[in-house]
Design goal:
It comes from Heliophilum fasciatum. This is histidine kinase. The protein is an alpha+beta fold and 224 residues long. The protein has six helices and seven strands, in the order ααβαββαββααββ. The protein has helices spanning 2-41, 49-73, 85-102, 121-138, 169-172, 190-200; strands spanning 81-83, 106-111, 117-119, 144-151, 155-162, 204-210, 213-221. The protein has a five-stranded mixed β-sheet. It has a two-stranded antiparallel sheet with strand order 1-3. A hairpin with a 2-residue loop joins strand 6 and strand 7. Bound molecules: adenosine-5'-diphosphate (ADP) and magnesium ion (MG). Magnesium ion (MG) binds at residues 130, 133-134, 190. Magnesium ion is lined by residues 130, 133-134, 190.
């Protein structure tokens, strides 16, 4: 009986995912088709550069979404090397601070000594950017976002905390489902990518959220 439910859940997820992809691809197709049709009817009046820009933008977005989506489906761990997560964070600081300034936010680092980890650096940068970006977007201007690292005997923790408005229990359940978004221009792929990157690192992600804010904790296994 339980198996049946799981299978139904899986089918449901597949359906939602397919609907998400279809929506993201069909939208740009509709836009581009519309403009081409206008042009076809009036071949003498050239396509305005504004329309061309829009078409290119829409196609680029669709292409970007396909790339992101494929990265979620990947299971191969790729190139993982021993590295110092704190150093990686430090190297990203200028980028994160520049990003924060756009929102008038502040980024605070609270990094404790941690052992080296087996990481795919490119993926971990992506994971951090996605979590940080969500934190920025969740806060009113002038918010504070904290990036923290710490170690336990068995794990290394990377935590991203914001003082945003939090995530409702109903939405919490949907986190990581591809294309789940509550934002007008969101793709709903950011967290799905984080979960998939975490899985390739044998790491798990925990979320704690209240009306005071949200903390995402990524728990990496220590190298034995
Ligand atoms: P997107 O950012 O494009 O919407 P994500 O996968 O990154 O897609 O996030 C999915 C949804 O999860 C967001 O639309 C938002 O509702 C919720 N969410 C994620 N992170 C946070 C956060 N730090 N605070 C509040 N809500 C969040
Ligand atoms: Mg996001």
């Amino acid at each position: 009986y339980r198996n049946e439910i799981n299978r139904l859940d899986q089918l449901h997820l597949l359906g939602e995912t397919a609907a998400g992809i279809a929506h993201e691809i069909r939208n740009p197709m509709t836009t581009v088709r519309g403009y081409l049709q206008i042009y076809q009817r009036k071949p003498d009046s050239p396509l305005s550069s504004h329309h061309m820009d829009l078409m290119i933008k829409e196609l680029d977005r669709a292409n970007h979404i396909i790339t992101e989506f494929l990265s979620i489906a990947r299971t191969h761990p790729g190139d993982q090397q021993r590295c110092d997560l704190n150093q990686l964070l430090e190297a990203m600081e200028p980028l994160l601070v520049t990003d924060a300034v756009q929102f008038s936010h502040q980024v605070i680092f609270n990094c404790q000594p941690i052992p080296q980890l087996l990481l795919n650096q490119k993926e971990i940068r992506q994971l951090l950017l996605n979590l940080v970006h969500n934190g920025f977007e969740a806060m009113a201007p002038g918010g504070r976002l904290i990036i923290a690292t710490s170690a336990t005997r068995s794990h290394v923790l990377l935590q991203v905390s914001d003082y945003g408005s939090g995530i409702s229990p109903e939405h919490l359940k949907k986190l990581g489902t591809p294309f789940f978004t509550t934002k007008d221009k969101g793709t709903g792929l950011g967290l799905a990518i984080c979960y998939s990157i975490a899985a390739r690192h044998q790491a798990n992600i925990e979320v704690q959220s209240s009306s005071q804010g949200t903390t995402f904790s990524v728990r990496f296994p220590r190298i034995r």
